[in-house]
Give the backbone structure.
Amino acid sequence: MNHRELLERFLATDPADVGCETATALLHVYVELIETDKDAARRYPGVAAHLAACGPCDEDFKGLLEMIKAGF
Amino acid sequence: MISQASGAPALDPASAEWIGALTASGPDREAGLARLHELLIRVAAHELRRRETSSGVTGAELDDLAHQAAADAMLAILDKLDTFRGESRFTTWAYKFAILEVSSKLGRHFWRRHPTTVLASEDWERLPDRFGIDPGEHAERAEMVKAVRQAVEETLTDHQRDVFTAIVVNGVPLDAMVSLLGLNRNALYKAVFDARRKIRAFLVANGYLDEVRKGP
């Protein structure tokens, strides 16, 4: 991937992205769907799009997923 | 884009037990509160340890932040308890608050660990690193910095420019900016989102990028 393609990838925005507020409100539901191997991204495409683009929300998602996988 | 589940599902037995304890009175409620608090401390500490490398928070400082995050998560949970509708296990819902508080605490804590971070110092030369561009590609890096900088200066509002520069150019964590500016995460994310969209449109209009895609 050349430098313009890398920049293009960074600047690309997904209109389906629901933003932090909605993604956070649904995070517990989304995490459990992921955990049970259902197609969470198809059911909540806006959340999936957001987590792919927002580092802080994705970090929260990863933390919550790890927590329930670890059996807390 | 988002379809909320309609109607509240029945609570699973463990979640029902939690809600029963937390809405009870007397010793049962006290026991439930103590159990939840203990669990939230463990969750917050686990999450802080998971982020140890990026945050640099360890030892007694980590324990202190875990207790603070657990205490604030506890308040948030009790405040919103009547909004829990059983769409997930109670514990998954509750852990979310602990994790959000950890993010918030680390955002605030960033300024304690980096008090000399000057928001006005724009580190444009490092910008290509954030996009994964090879340090050896000097000409390409310089060309890209020039193009993006022009787009930032000519298309963004003052607020978008300040936020984009701090978070993307200078690498300040978004949650640290949330803490500094007293805004919520969504507002800052939206500012960066809009900035990315406007910069891209400028670069396409000026022939630097091709109009080839609508999303990732």
About this structure: The mean pLDDT of chain A is 92. Chain A is about 75% helix and 0% strand.
